[in-house]
Structures are given as structure tokens and as C-alpha cells.
Amino acid sequence: MVLIRHQLFFPTELISLKRIAGLDRITFDENEGLRIGALVTHAQVEHSPIVQQHCPALAQCVHHVGNLRVRNMGTLVGDLCQADNHSDPAPLLGVLGARVRTRSLRGERLLSMAEFHVDIYETGVKEDEIVTEIVIPPPAPQACTAYLRFSGNSPIDWPILGVAGSLVAEDGQCKALKICVGSLTAVPLGFDSEAEELKGKKLTPGMIKKFARACAARIEPIDDTRGSEWYKKKVAEVYIRRTVETLAK
Ligand SMILES: Cc1cc2nc3c(=O)[nH]c(=O)nc-3n(C[C@H](O)[C@H](O)[C@H](O)COP(=O)(O)OP(=O)(O)OC[C@H]3O[C@@H](n4cnc5c(N)ncnc54)[C@H](O)[C@@H]3O)c2cc1C
Predict the structure, then answer these.
(1) Does the Cβ of 38 fall within 6 Å of ligand 1?
(2) Which residue's alpha carbon is nearest to atom 6 within ligand 1?
(3) CA 247 / ligand 1 centre spacing (Å)
(4) Measuring CA to CA, which residue among 123, 124, 132, 135 is closest to residue 103?
(5) All domains of the chain in start order, with CATH
(6) Residue 114 near ligand 1, beta carbon < 6 Å
(7) pLDDT at 2
(8) pLDDT digits over 69-86, tens only?
(9) Which of 221, 218, 246, 230 is nearest to 147 (CA)?
(10) Between 39 and which of 23, 26, 80, 224 could a Cys-Cys bridge form, CB atoms 3.0 to 4.6 Å apart?
């Protein structure tokens, strides 16, 4: 609907998925993890006891999507399928290792987030497929996950950037770190090689600062009305640092 209102898309037919049974479910099991159906709204994700128990960072993340009306009407899957590069959940689903299940007459496919995100407004979903659900694997034991966003105009505006992170640490030592930044580039950007450098090291304030600087240096942000390339790089450095500090607390 947003794309139609922006006059970016002129469909001749609209097909509602609302009456397809089973697409409105949120379930969790130890093997596959959390499964969120295509009809589940942001508000239902936010208030679901299952999501709050097994993936609290996602419940907190979708709380920041637009406003109450958007969260009551818009679905998490619709947010992803629209593939706006300012999506809040997209970078978080990246660090959570989520996959997108599609279905067509030819059968089912499970796409990683890297396969799903192709470009702004473009996904790996084929023309004869619909997305049926998002699957989030059970988190690694002791993993902490967080999502921090910054929106310049008002807190309910789309983000200038969103930083998602997941950390497994033992006695302050980094065992595994994942960071993914959304909004700045066409698709969310991960920093696995920079994070690999921190593996086995103590997360001191100096280390975290150096890491954030190295990540920000690699980003080539889109210059737009939300800020210049220079400004966005500076904000990214600050928010990557704050995300790792939050995780390491
Ligand atoms: C005022 C406003 C503010 C917003 N602010 C934010 C924000 O701060 N952060 C944020 O992340 N998002 C924001 N959004 C986006 C919002 O989250 C999405 O518009 C909403 O979630 C889309 O869900 P929907 O179910 O209405 O999808 P639709 O609008 O119905 O669909 C969106 C696109 O996805 C496709 N699609 C939907 N479901 C499927 C499916 N199951 N299989 C295949 N294709 C599918 C549709 O064909 C369409 O192209 C905002 C939107 C508005 C209007």
C-alpha cells in the first residue's frame, strides 16, 4: 500500500492473503526456533509472550516501527517484503540468523537474509512465490542481542540508521560477535571480518572504540535527505560503539 501511495507501483490486481489458514501463527520449538507467519502484525510480534520469551530483542525492535496504527496494520513479513532499506527489523533478523520461507506451486524454499535482500525494494522472492513465514533459530546459549536505532526528526520516524548486535562473552572476553547495520546502504551490512578480530579478546572501552571506527570506515552510506555520507558515517561509529557497549554490560 505504501508503494502504491508513493506511486512507485501500479498493480492491476491485488490479492489478499488474509484468509489463508495458518499464516497468522507465532510458534516456537527447540529444533527450528521461532516461526512468525506472514499475517502476524508488528503489534502481535511486540506483545507475543512467545517472542518476548525467546527473542525479546525482536519484540523491542518492532515497538519502534512507525506508530501504533502502522504496527496494528503492518506485518513483519510485509515490512521485509517491501524491502525499504530503512526497515528496522531487517538488520536484527540478519544477526539472529533468520530465514524466510517462501512457497509456490513448485514447492518451498528457505532463504537466508543475504539471499533475501537484493536491493532497495527488491528481494529474492520469485514472482510466483509468497512468503509464508520467518524462521529464527534458537539463540546460542548466553547470547545477548540488542537493536539500537537513531531517527533524526522524531522517534516515530523511519530510522537514519539501525544497529543490531549479538554477543556471546565469557568473563568479559568476546567469544562470538555479530553486528549488522541497516538503513545506510541498499541492504543491511554485516561486519564479520572486523568482529573476527575481537574473538578471544577482552572487550575494553578502547577495543570497542577501535572496532566501531573500523566498521564505520567500511560503510559507504547513501547520501540523502536524512544526512550526508560524512554525517551518517559519524553516527554509525557512535551507534556501533554503543551497541557493543550495551551487549558487553
Ligand atoms: C507512516 C509509516 C511509517 C513507517 N515507519 C516504519 C519504521 O519506522 N520502520 C520500519 O521498519 N517500517 C516502517 N514502516 C513500514 C511498515 O512496517 C510496512 O509498511 C508494513 O509492515 C508493511 O506490512 P503490510 O502487511 O502492510 O505489507 P503490504 O504493504 O501489504 O506489502 C508490502 C510489500 O510486500 C509484499 N508482500 C507483503 N506480504 C507478502 C508475502 N507474504 N509474500 C510476498 N510478498 C508480500 C507486497 O506485495 C508489497 O509489495 C512505516 C510505514 C508507514 C506507512
Answers:
(1) yes
(2) 66
(3) 29
(4) 132
(5) 2-136 (3.30.465.10), 143-248 (3.30.390.50)
(6) no
(7) 81
(8) 999 999 999 999 999 999
(9) 246
(10) 23
